[in-house]
Request: fold
Amino acid sequence: MAGRWEWVADGPIQVGVTTSRREHTTSTVVVSGDGALLVDPAWDPDELGWIADDLAAAGVTVTAGFATHAHHDHLLWHPRWAGANRWASSGTTDQATVRRSDLVDALGSGWPTDLGALVGRVNAASGSRLPWNGTSIELITHDGHACGHTALWLPTAQVLIAGDMLSDVELPLLEESDPADYDAAMAALRPYVERARVIIPGHGTPAIGPEAATARWVADRRYLDALIADRDQDDHRMVHPGMRDAHQHNRSRVLT
Reply:
């Protein structure tokens, strides 16, 4: 469960990752100057509480948040960060607004009311850079996996926060996208992968070092090519819970 940070970048820009007990879901904090950006904080209420408590104890003030896409486990927030601006792409913002009731319901009947009230309360970030006072962060928006899915590129730290792509435990998940959307997303991410020192997936473990970063992209590309060609898959991620069912869903998207 969340209970420690793995600091994948240390210096003027600090980047920490903590991992939920549920589905290897990552939460990422970017500490820059007098503030911090929190990306996709998740998942269980006690884990959100730990993130809030631990950052406050370290003297870190969350001044901004970002949701990479409009799935329920990536739209969470905590009352302790009430003063922060929360951002997402326009596509994510639209989906979070239209589907908000369903997104809250997906968290389960026992989800705390105060946390439920904050699900998906994001504003659209216009332009290609995050509108905050910290380090420059480039927004890479595409429609792979979900409409308006956005990765964040930190050029100073050479860190790519990839959202629900480039995972070591999850296959490429087409979800609402089609193969062409996902293919375009892979192409959009490639130039950043080639420069990345670290890749942080939405689920799984960070890829540390250029070789590991490139290997993530290559693995997703290989899977997608085989999926489109309807070839047998020997992807090692197929052994993880839910991935065989996810593969069948992917096939249904290809055959549609």
About this structure: The chain has one domain: 6-255. The helical segments are 45-57, 90-98, 100-105, 113-116, 179-193, 210-229, 243-255. The first strand starts at residue 6 and ends at 9. The CA atoms of residues 147 and 227 lie 21 Å apart.
